[in-house]
Structures are given as C-alpha cells and as structure tokens.
Amino acid sequence: MKRNFDIGDKVEVIDENLSGTVIGLKGNAVVFEDEHGFSHTYDASQLVKKQTIPCQLPMKTIEGKYKETSQTLTKSKRTTSKLPVVDLHKEKITGMPAMVHPGEILHYQLLHLKHFLNEMKRKRIKKFIVVHGKGSGKLKAEAQKLVRKEGYTTYDAPYHRFGFQGAFTAEKK
Predict the structure, then answer these.
(1) CB 169 within 8 A of CB 156
(2) Would you kindly state where each structural domain of the chain is located, as residue ranges?
(3) Cα separations (Å) of 97 from 54, 60, 86?
(4) pTM score > 0.90 for this model?
(5) In angstroms, rounded to a whole number, what is the distance separating the alpha carbons of residues 105 and 82?
(6) Cα separation of 52 and 89, whole Å?
(7) Which stretches of 78-137 are DSSP H helices?
(8) pLDDT tens per residue across span 132-145
C-alpha cells in the first residue's frame, strides 16, 4: 500500500517510540531524522503522519491548584483506516510535567482523553481508537468508563495493528 508522505512531514513509527521529520523518499521507503539528528529508513506502511490539535490543558501549579495553559495534544492518524487515534502512553502526552508523582499519571492520561473526546465531539467524529497499552488494566478500565459515559460503545482494536489488549475502538451509534 502506498502512503503519501512529503519532505518535512512529521511522522511516527507504528508500535515504536520513534518519530521525526521526513528528509527523503526512496520508492516506498521513507527516510526521516529524529530529534537527535539520526536518520532512519522505514517502509511507508510502518509510519503514520503526526498531527497536532491545539487545546487547553490544565497544569498543576506549585500551590496545587490548576490553571489553564496553552498546550498541544498529539494525535496520530492511521492513514489506512482514517480513524483518529489517541495514545495515552505517558511518554506521548505533551504538557505533562517532567516530575509527576506516579499517582498523578493516571489523572493526566484521563485528562488528555477528555480533551480528545471534546475534540471528537466538536468535529462530530463518531469512531476513533484509544491506545492505552497493556499494563495492569487500570487505565483501560478508567478510559472505557469515561468513553462509555459519553455515549460510545467500545470493543478491542484490530490485533494486527495494535497488538493484544493494547487498544480499543470507540464508536457512537
């Protein structure tokens, strides 16, 4: 399958924590440079374009209260299915303070999901994928609860793209 990438596009490798900017195209191979200046070559089918959605993310101040600050949420768009994808891995959430207490990580992940849900409602998108990772299941349970509360039904995402129990699809009937 041919993917449409252009030089300068921001891309992510599917199922790896690797991203960068496209610097070359060789047939179906895409060459991109990561944030450290290293170049990587991947088949186009292993990459997705990155898009950003501006939103307001509350950040905790020193006093423990929340204030609104302008941040950017990252959304991966799988070009094969055209479904929006939100990745709740803590490394993928922009705007999360570097020194977050482990007990607060779940809070930020769910907050990230709430902003994504609001964006999906605003754009009237009825189907999307939530990547939560394997883990103990706490994030999956809380994310499904939040998504179902908004009127969506959930089911496991395709195994061939997201692995076993690492993601779910949400759909509004």
Answers:
(1) yes
(2) 10-48, 49-171
(3) 18, 8, 19
(4) no
(5) 29
(6) 16
(7) 102-122
(8) 888 778 888 999 99
d(CA 84, CA 52): 11
- pLDDT tens readout for residues 9-35: 888 888 778 889 999 998 889 999 888
Identify the pLDDT of residue 81: 52
Beta strands in the chain (DSSP E): 10-13, 19-26, 29-33, 39-43, 47-60, 66-77, 84-87, 127-131, 153-156, 167-171
For strands 84-87 and 127-131, give the pairing: parallel
The CATH code that applies to domain 49-171 is: 3.30.1370
Q: For helices 102-122 and 138-149, what crossing angle results, to 10°?
A: 30
Amino acid at 101: H
Contact predicate 127/86, CB 8 Å? no
Residue 70's pLDDT band (boundaries 50, 70, 90)? Answer: very low
The model's confidence at residue 3, banded by pLDDT at 50, 70 and 90, is low
Residue 155 is encoded by which pair of tokens? Answer: 């089911």
β-strands 29-33, 39-43: how paired?
antiparallel
Tokens of 45: 């089918």
Structure tokens at 7: 């030089």
